[in-house]
Protein backbone atom coordinates (compact mmCIF):
# COMPACT_ATOMS: atom_id res chain seq x y z
CA UNK A 1 0.00 0.00 0.00
CA UNK A 2 1.37 3.41 -0.99
CA UNK A 3 1.78 5.89 1.87
CA UNK A 4 -0.36 9.01 1.67
CA UNK A 5 1.36 12.26 0.75
CA UNK A 6 0.58 15.41 2.72
CA UNK A 7 1.75 18.85 1.57
CA UNK A 8 2.19 21.28 4.48
CA UNK A 9 1.89 24.28 2.19
CA UNK A 10 3.30 27.80 2.20
CA UNK A 11 4.21 28.29 5.88
CA UNK A 12 4.59 31.75 7.33
CA UNK A 13 8.21 30.73 7.98
CA UNK A 14 10.09 27.44 8.16
CA UNK A 15 13.39 26.44 9.73
CA UNK A 16 14.73 24.68 6.65
CA UNK A 17 16.64 25.82 3.57
CA UNK A 18 14.80 25.67 0.27
CA UNK A 19 11.41 24.97 1.84
CA UNK A 20 9.59 28.29 1.57
CA UNK A 21 6.74 26.49 -0.17
CA UNK A 22 6.53 23.91 2.60
CA UNK A 23 7.26 20.21 2.91
CA UNK A 24 5.70 16.99 1.67
CA UNK A 25 5.25 14.22 4.23
CA UNK A 26 4.97 10.66 2.95
CA UNK A 27 4.27 8.05 5.59
CA UNK A 28 6.50 8.78 8.58
CA UNK A 29 9.14 10.73 6.66
CA UNK A 30 9.76 13.99 4.89
CA UNK A 31 9.69 13.27 1.17
CA UNK A 32 10.34 16.70 -0.30
CA UNK A 33 11.09 20.33 0.46
CA UNK A 34 9.09 22.65 -1.76
CA UNK A 35 10.75 25.95 -2.77
CA UNK A 36 8.92 29.27 -2.47
CA UNK A 37 6.36 29.59 -5.24
CA UNK A 38 6.80 25.95 -6.22
CA UNK A 39 4.69 22.83 -6.10
CA UNK A 40 5.51 19.23 -5.12
CA UNK A 41 7.16 17.16 -7.83
CA UNK A 42 4.58 14.35 -7.42
CA UNK A 43 0.81 14.47 -6.73
CA UNK A 44 -0.32 14.79 -3.10
CA UNK A 45 -3.33 13.26 -1.39
CA UNK A 46 -3.93 16.08 1.07
CA UNK A 47 -2.89 19.69 1.63
CA UNK A 48 -2.64 21.60 4.88
CA UNK A 49 -2.56 25.40 4.60
CA UNK A 50 0.26 26.50 6.91
CA UNK A 51 0.15 30.19 6.05
CA UNK A 52 -0.53 31.06 9.72
CA UNK A 53 2.19 28.79 11.03
CA UNK A 54 5.89 28.94 11.76
CA UNK A 55 7.25 25.43 11.15
CA UNK A 56 10.30 24.06 12.94
CA UNK A 57 11.72 20.57 13.44
CA UNK A 58 10.19 18.90 16.46
CA UNK A 59 12.15 19.83 19.57
CA UNK A 60 14.21 17.09 21.24
CA UNK A 61 14.50 16.97 25.02
CA UNK A 62 17.68 15.24 26.19
CA UNK A 63 17.38 15.46 29.97
CA UNK A 64 14.42 15.33 32.37
CA UNK A 65 13.17 13.61 35.51
CA UNK A 66 9.46 13.03 34.92
CA UNK A 67 8.66 11.94 38.47
CA UNK A 68 9.56 15.40 39.73
CA UNK A 69 6.40 16.93 38.24
CA UNK A 70 4.82 15.77 41.50
CA UNK A 71 7.05 17.98 43.65
CA UNK A 72 7.18 21.32 41.84
CA UNK A 73 7.79 24.39 43.99
CA UNK A 74 7.97 22.14 47.05
CA UNK A 75 8.54 24.17 50.22
CA UNK A 76 11.18 21.73 51.49
CA UNK A 77 13.48 22.57 48.58
CA UNK A 78 12.76 26.12 47.44
CA UNK A 79 15.78 28.46 47.39
CA UNK A 80 18.44 25.76 47.85
CA UNK A 81 21.47 24.77 45.75
CA UNK A 82 21.77 21.21 44.42
CA UNK A 83 23.15 19.15 47.33
CA UNK A 84 20.86 20.66 50.04
CA UNK A 85 18.01 20.55 47.51
CA UNK A 86 18.55 16.82 46.96
CA UNK A 87 18.86 16.07 50.67
CA UNK A 88 15.58 17.92 51.28
CA UNK A 89 13.71 16.03 48.56
CA UNK A 90 15.06 12.47 48.91
CA UNK A 91 12.81 11.77 51.95
CA UNK A 92 9.85 13.24 50.04
CA UNK A 93 10.48 11.11 46.93
CA UNK A 94 10.60 7.98 49.07
CA UNK A 95 6.78 7.99 48.86
CA UNK A 96 6.73 7.60 45.07
CA UNK A 97 4.63 4.65 43.89
CA UNK A 98 3.73 3.17 40.49
CA UNK A 99 0.36 4.95 40.15
CA UNK A 100 1.88 8.33 40.92
CA UNK A 101 4.80 7.69 38.59
CA UNK A 102 2.47 6.78 35.72
CA UNK A 103 0.56 10.05 36.12
CA UNK A 104 3.83 11.99 36.38
CA UNK A 105 5.04 10.46 33.12
CA UNK A 106 1.74 11.12 31.34
CA UNK A 107 1.76 14.73 32.46
CA UNK A 108 5.43 15.32 31.55
CA UNK A 109 5.05 13.76 28.09
CA UNK A 110 1.94 15.87 27.48
CA UNK A 111 3.59 19.08 28.62
CA UNK A 112 6.60 18.43 26.40
CA UNK A 113 4.44 17.60 23.40
CA UNK A 114 2.42 20.79 23.83
CA UNK A 115 5.64 22.82 23.86
CA UNK A 116 6.60 21.45 20.43
CA UNK A 117 8.73 18.54 21.66
CA UNK A 118 8.49 15.37 19.55
CA UNK A 119 11.27 13.30 21.18
CA UNK A 120 11.21 13.14 24.96
CA UNK A 121 14.25 11.95 26.86
CA UNK A 122 13.99 11.07 30.53
CA UNK A 123 16.53 10.03 33.17
CA UNK A 124 14.74 8.01 35.83
CA UNK A 125 17.04 6.97 38.67
CA UNK A 126 14.62 6.53 41.60
CA UNK A 127 13.57 2.96 42.43
CA UNK A 128 11.83 2.72 45.80
CA UNK A 129 10.20 -0.63 46.56
CA UNK A 130 7.23 -1.21 44.24
CA UNK A 131 8.61 0.83 41.33
CA UNK A 132 10.83 -1.84 39.79
CA UNK A 133 9.05 -1.56 36.40
CA UNK A 134 9.50 2.19 35.99
CA UNK A 135 10.95 1.87 32.47
CA UNK A 136 8.01 -0.29 31.38
CA UNK A 137 5.60 2.39 32.59
CA UNK A 138 7.45 5.12 30.72
CA UNK A 139 7.41 3.13 27.48
CA UNK A 140 3.69 2.36 27.82
CA UNK A 141 2.82 6.02 28.39
CA UNK A 142 4.95 7.20 25.44
CA UNK A 143 3.35 4.70 23.11
CA UNK A 144 -0.14 5.70 24.25
CA UNK A 145 0.56 9.36 23.52
CA UNK A 146 2.45 8.74 20.27
CA UNK A 147 5.54 10.69 21.27
CA UNK A 148 9.04 9.48 20.42
CA UNK A 149 10.90 8.51 23.61
CA UNK A 150 14.45 7.94 24.76
CA UNK A 151 14.11 6.39 28.21
CA UNK A 152 17.31 6.01 30.18
CA UNK A 153 17.40 3.34 32.88
CA UNK A 154 18.92 5.41 35.65
CA UNK A 155 20.28 4.10 38.92
CA UNK A 156 21.71 4.88 42.34
CA UNK A 157 23.72 2.25 44.21
CA UNK A 158 25.70 4.20 46.83
CA UNK A 159 23.65 5.45 49.78
CA UNK A 160 24.45 7.61 52.79
CA UNK A 161 25.64 4.48 54.61
CA UNK A 162 28.40 4.03 52.01
CA UNK A 163 29.35 7.68 51.66
CA UNK A 164 26.82 8.71 49.01
CA UNK A 165 23.99 11.23 49.12
CA UNK A 166 20.66 9.30 48.89
CA UNK A 167 19.06 7.36 51.76
CA UNK A 168 19.25 3.55 51.78
CA UNK A 169 15.60 3.09 50.72
CA UNK A 170 16.17 4.74 47.34
CA UNK A 171 19.14 2.74 46.08
CA UNK A 172 19.54 -0.69 44.48
CA UNK A 173 22.60 -2.89 44.40
CA UNK A 174 24.75 -3.07 41.26
CA UNK A 175 23.67 -6.60 40.30
CA UNK A 176 19.96 -5.73 40.47
CA UNK A 177 20.54 -2.60 38.37
CA UNK A 178 22.59 -4.40 35.71
CA UNK A 179 20.10 -7.26 35.45
CA UNK A 180 17.18 -4.87 34.97
CA UNK A 181 19.22 -2.79 32.52
CA UNK A 182 19.70 -5.90 30.38
CA UNK A 183 16.00 -6.74 30.71
CA UNK A 184 14.69 -3.37 29.52
CA UNK A 185 17.26 -3.14 26.71
CA UNK A 186 16.16 -6.54 25.43
CA UNK A 187 12.48 -5.62 25.68
CA UNK A 188 12.35 -2.05 24.43
CA UNK A 189 15.52 -0.73 22.79
CA UNK A 190 15.28 -0.18 19.04
CA UNK A 191 18.58 1.02 17.52
CA UNK A 192 17.18 1.32 13.99
CA UNK A 193 16.49 4.63 12.19
CA UNK A 194 12.95 5.84 12.82
CA UNK A 195 12.78 4.16 16.24
CA UNK A 196 9.93 5.35 18.41
CA UNK A 197 11.44 3.96 21.63
CA UNK A 198 15.09 3.74 22.58
CA UNK A 199 16.62 2.84 25.92
CA UNK A 200 19.86 4.19 27.35
CA UNK A 201 21.78 3.45 30.53
CA UNK A 202 22.19 6.25 33.04
CA UNK A 203 23.96 5.69 36.38
CA UNK A 204 22.95 8.88 38.14
CA UNK A 205 26.16 10.70 39.12
CA UNK A 206 29.59 10.22 40.70
CA UNK A 207 28.20 10.79 44.19
CA UNK A 208 25.67 7.95 44.18
CA UNK A 209 26.96 5.05 42.01
CA UNK A 210 29.97 2.73 42.08
CA UNK A 211 32.76 2.73 39.52
CA UNK A 212 31.91 -0.91 38.86
CA UNK A 213 28.38 0.11 37.82
CA UNK A 214 29.77 2.77 35.49
CA UNK A 215 32.20 0.32 33.83
CA UNK A 216 29.74 -2.53 33.44
CA UNK A 217 27.03 -0.17 32.13
CA UNK A 218 29.50 0.92 29.44
CA UNK A 219 30.13 -2.72 28.52
CA UNK A 220 26.40 -3.39 28.35
CA UNK A 221 25.88 -0.34 26.13
CA UNK A 222 28.46 -1.64 23.68
CA UNK A 223 26.72 -5.02 23.48
CA UNK A 224 23.27 -3.52 22.93
CA UNK A 225 24.34 -0.49 20.86
CA UNK A 226 22.70 2.03 23.15
CA UNK A 227 23.63 5.43 24.58
CA UNK A 228 25.11 6.27 27.98
CA UNK A 229 24.02 9.22 30.09
CA UNK A 230 24.90 10.70 33.49
CA UNK A 231 25.08 13.96 35.42
CA UNK A 232 28.56 15.45 35.41
CA UNK A 233 30.14 18.72 36.52
CA UNK A 234 26.82 20.27 37.49
CA UNK A 235 28.12 21.95 40.67
CA UNK A 236 31.31 22.75 42.52
CA UNK A 237 30.05 20.49 45.33
CA UNK A 238 30.28 17.55 42.91
CA UNK A 239 33.80 18.54 41.94
CA UNK A 240 34.81 18.67 45.61
CA UNK A 241 33.17 15.26 46.22
CA UNK A 242 35.16 13.67 43.39
CA UNK A 243 38.42 15.18 44.59
CA UNK A 244 37.80 14.05 48.17
CA UNK A 245 36.39 10.59 47.40
CA UNK A 246 38.30 9.56 44.28
CA UNK A 247 41.29 11.91 44.32
CA UNK A 248 40.43 13.07 40.80
CA UNK A 249 38.32 15.61 38.95
CA UNK A 250 35.00 14.47 37.40
CA UNK A 251 36.35 14.26 33.83
CA UNK A 252 39.27 12.10 35.00
CA UNK A 253 36.69 9.89 36.75
CA UNK A 254 34.73 9.68 33.48
CA UNK A 255 37.82 8.57 31.58
CA UNK A 256 38.81 5.98 34.19
CA UNK A 257 35.42 4.24 33.99
CA UNK A 258 35.50 4.08 30.19
CA UNK A 259 32.97 6.78 29.40
CA UNK A 260 35.04 9.10 27.18
CA UNK A 261 33.16 8.01 24.08
CA UNK A 262 30.81 9.42 21.43
CA UNK A 263 28.24 7.00 22.87
CA UNK A 264 28.00 9.30 25.93
CA UNK A 265 26.10 12.48 26.59
CA UNK A 266 26.27 14.35 29.88
CA UNK A 267 23.70 16.43 31.72
CA UNK A 268 24.69 19.99 32.65
CA UNK A 269 28.47 19.94 32.02
CA UNK A 270 29.13 23.30 33.68
CA UNK A 271 32.42 23.19 35.54
CA UNK A 272 34.91 22.01 32.91
CA UNK A 273 38.29 23.68 32.54
CA UNK A 274 39.80 24.43 29.12
CA UNK A 275 41.79 21.19 28.93
CA UNK A 276 38.70 19.15 29.86
CA UNK A 277 36.59 20.88 27.21
CA UNK A 278 39.21 19.93 24.62
CA UNK A 279 39.32 16.31 25.86
CA UNK A 280 35.54 15.97 25.73
CA UNK A 281 35.46 17.43 22.25
CA UNK A 282 38.12 15.05 20.95
CA UNK A 283 36.17 12.12 22.40
CA UNK A 284 32.88 13.33 20.90
CA UNK A 285 31.10 13.36 24.26
CA UNK A 286 27.81 15.27 24.06
CA UNK A 287 26.50 17.74 26.62
CA UNK A 288 22.88 18.56 27.42
CA UNK A 289 22.55 22.21 28.41
CA UNK A 290 19.81 22.76 31.02
CA UNK A 291 19.59 26.57 31.29
CA UNK A 292 16.39 26.87 33.33
CA UNK A 293 17.44 24.40 36.01
CA UNK A 294 20.97 25.79 36.13
CA UNK A 295 19.60 29.28 36.82
CA UNK A 296 17.05 28.02 39.37
CA UNK A 297 19.67 26.15 41.41
CA UNK A 298 22.37 28.75 40.66
CA UNK A 299 24.65 25.93 39.51
CA UNK A 300 26.53 27.93 36.88
CA UNK A 301 26.70 28.31 33.11
CA UNK A 302 27.40 25.58 30.60
CA UNK A 303 30.31 26.39 28.26
CA UNK A 304 28.19 25.73 25.18
CA UNK A 305 30.19 27.65 22.60
CA UNK A 306 33.57 26.27 23.71
CA UNK A 307 32.22 22.72 23.84
CA UNK A 308 30.80 22.96 20.33
CA UNK A 309 33.99 24.49 18.99
CA UNK A 310 35.94 21.59 20.55
CA UNK A 311 33.71 19.02 18.82
CA UNK A 312 31.13 18.09 21.45
CA UNK A 313 27.48 17.93 20.39
CA UNK A 314 25.41 20.35 22.49
CA UNK A 315 21.70 19.75 23.06
CA UNK A 316 19.00 21.10 25.34
CA UNK A 317 16.98 19.67 28.20
CA UNK A 318 14.35 21.00 30.58
CA UNK A 319 15.74 18.95 33.49
CA UNK A 320 13.51 17.82 36.34
CA UNK A 321 10.32 19.63 37.16
CA UNK A 322 11.42 20.16 40.75
CA UNK A 323 14.38 22.28 39.62
CA UNK A 324 12.74 23.78 36.53
CA UNK A 325 9.10 23.65 37.71
CA UNK A 326 8.06 23.29 34.08
CA UNK A 327 8.40 20.76 31.26
CA UNK A 328 8.35 23.32 28.46
CA UNK A 329 11.24 22.92 26.02
CA UNK A 330 10.26 25.93 23.92
CA UNK A 331 10.62 28.02 27.05
CA UNK A 332 14.01 26.36 27.53
CA UNK A 333 15.06 27.53 24.06
CA UNK A 334 14.41 31.14 25.09
CA UNK A 335 16.26 30.70 28.37
CA UNK A 336 19.21 29.17 26.51
CA UNK A 337 19.37 32.19 24.24
CA UNK A 338 19.21 34.69 27.09
CA UNK A 339 21.68 32.94 29.39
CA UNK A 340 24.21 32.35 26.63
CA UNK A 341 23.98 35.92 25.40
CA UNK A 342 24.70 37.04 28.93
CA UNK A 343 27.72 34.72 28.89
CA UNK A 344 29.09 35.30 25.39
CA UNK A 345 27.59 38.60 24.15
CA UNK A 346 24.59 39.70 22.10
CA UNK A 347 26.20 38.94 18.72
CA UNK A 348 27.74 35.58 19.63
CA UNK A 349 24.54 33.54 20.17
CA UNK A 350 21.40 33.91 18.04
CA UNK A 351 17.89 32.53 18.17
CA UNK A 352 18.95 30.13 15.41
CA UNK A 353 21.72 28.76 17.63
CA UNK A 354 19.26 28.12 20.47
CA UNK A 355 16.81 26.40 18.11
CA UNK A 356 19.66 24.33 16.64
CA UNK A 357 20.69 23.13 20.11
CA UNK A 358 17.10 21.99 20.76
CA UNK A 359 16.82 20.13 17.44
CA UNK A 360 19.89 18.95 15.51
CA UNK A 361 22.21 19.37 18.51
CA UNK A 362 19.98 17.26 20.73
CA UNK A 363 19.66 14.64 17.98
CA UNK A 364 23.46 14.43 17.80
CA UNK A 365 23.63 13.93 21.58
CA UNK A 366 21.32 10.95 21.12
CA UNK A 367 23.36 9.62 18.21
CA UNK A 368 20.52 10.12 15.72
CA UNK A 369 20.63 11.51 12.20
CA UNK A 370 16.99 10.75 11.38
CA UNK A 371 15.44 13.46 13.57
CA UNK A 372 16.15 17.11 14.40
CA UNK A 373 16.13 18.45 10.83
CA UNK A 374 13.62 19.18 8.09
CA UNK A 375 15.21 17.35 5.18
CA UNK A 376 14.37 14.59 2.75
CA UNK A 377 14.53 11.17 4.41
CA UNK A 378 14.29 12.51 7.97
CA UNK A 379 11.41 11.57 10.21
CA UNK A 380 8.38 13.85 9.86
CA UNK A 381 8.61 15.31 13.37
CA UNK A 382 7.36 18.89 13.15
CA UNK A 383 6.15 21.64 15.49
CA UNK A 384 3.87 24.35 14.11
CA UNK A 385 3.35 27.59 16.03
CA UNK A 386 1.00 30.48 15.31
CA UNK A 387 1.80 34.10 16.09
CA UNK A 388 -1.77 35.08 16.96
CA UNK A 389 -1.24 36.06 20.60
CA UNK A 390 -0.67 39.62 21.79
CA UNK A 391 2.92 38.75 22.72
CA UNK A 392 3.75 38.48 18.99
CA UNK A 393 1.95 41.60 17.78
CA UNK A 394 4.34 43.90 15.94
CA UNK A 395 6.98 41.21 15.36
CA UNK A 396 8.71 41.13 11.98
CA UNK A 397 10.91 38.02 11.80
CA UNK A 398 8.64 35.02 12.54
CA UNK A 399 11.41 32.59 13.52
CA UNK A 400 13.07 35.13 15.77
CA UNK A 401 9.68 36.01 17.26
CA UNK A 402 9.15 32.42 18.40
CA UNK A 403 12.15 32.73 20.68
CA UNK A 404 12.37 36.43 21.50
CA UNK A 405 8.65 36.97 22.11
CA UNK A 406 8.32 33.80 24.17
CA UNK A 407 6.34 31.15 22.28
CA UNK A 408 5.48 28.40 24.70
CA UNK A 409 2.65 26.32 23.17
CA UNK A 410 2.49 24.74 19.72
CA UNK A 411 -0.71 24.85 17.70
CA UNK A 412 0.05 21.59 15.87
CA UNK A 413 2.63 18.87 16.47
CA UNK A 414 3.43 15.95 14.17
CA UNK A 415 5.39 12.86 15.22
CA UNK A 416 6.43 10.27 12.59
CA UNK A 417 3.96 11.75 10.11
CA UNK A 418 0.96 11.67 12.48
CA UNK A 419 -0.66 14.71 14.06
CA UNK A 420 -0.43 14.42 17.85
CA UNK A 421 -1.52 17.97 18.74
CA UNK A 422 -4.33 19.78 16.90
CA UNK A 423 -5.45 23.33 17.67
CA UNK A 424 -3.28 23.35 20.77
CA UNK A 425 -4.82 20.17 22.21
CA UNK A 426 -3.12 16.78 22.60
CA UNK A 427 -5.09 14.01 20.95
CA UNK A 428 -6.56 11.46 23.32
CA UNK A 429 -5.75 13.36 26.52
CA UNK A 430 -8.24 15.16 28.74
CA UNK A 431 -5.81 17.72 30.12
CA UNK A 432 -8.26 19.02 32.72
CA UNK A 433 -8.81 15.56 34.16
CA UNK A 434 -5.08 14.80 34.01
CA UNK A 435 -4.27 17.96 35.94
CA UNK A 436 -6.91 17.23 38.59
CA UNK A 437 -5.75 13.64 39.14
CA UNK A 438 -2.06 14.58 39.12
CA UNK A 439 -2.57 17.48 41.53
CA UNK A 440 -4.67 15.42 43.92
CA UNK A 441 -2.09 12.63 44.05
CA UNK A 442 0.83 15.07 44.39
CA UNK A 443 -0.76 16.78 47.37
CA UNK A 444 -1.81 13.51 49.02
CA UNK A 445 1.57 11.79 48.70
CA UNK A 446 4.03 14.67 48.79
CA UNK A 447 2.25 17.55 50.49
CA UNK A 448 4.20 19.40 53.16
CA UNK A 449 3.17 18.25 56.63
From TrEMBL:
Residues 54-403 form the Amidohydrolase-related domain. InterPro entries: Amidohydro-rel, Metal-dep_hydrolase_composite, Metal_Hydrolase, MTA/SAH_deaminase. The keyword Hydrolase applies. GO terms for molecular function: deaminase activity; hydrolase activity, acting on carbon-nitrogen (but not peptide) bonds, in cyclic amidines; metal ion binding. Keywords: Hydrolase, Metal-binding, Zinc. Pfam families: Amidohydro_1. Coiled coil: none annotated. Belongs to the metallo-dependent hydrolases superfamily. ATZ/TRZ family. This is 8-oxoguanine deaminase. It comes from Methylobacterium oxalidis.
Amino acid sequence: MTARRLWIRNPLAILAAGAGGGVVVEGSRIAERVPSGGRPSLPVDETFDASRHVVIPGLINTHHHFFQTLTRAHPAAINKPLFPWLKALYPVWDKLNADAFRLACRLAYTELLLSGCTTAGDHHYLYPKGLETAVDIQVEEARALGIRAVVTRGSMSVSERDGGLPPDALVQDDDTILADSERVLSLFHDPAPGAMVQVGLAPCSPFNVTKRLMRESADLAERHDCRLHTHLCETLDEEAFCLTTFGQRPVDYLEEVGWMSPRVWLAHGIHFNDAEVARLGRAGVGVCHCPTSNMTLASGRCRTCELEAAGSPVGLGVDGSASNDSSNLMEGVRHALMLNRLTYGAEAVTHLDALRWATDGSARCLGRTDIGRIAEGCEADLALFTLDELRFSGSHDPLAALVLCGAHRADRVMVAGCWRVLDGQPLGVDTGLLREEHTRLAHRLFGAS
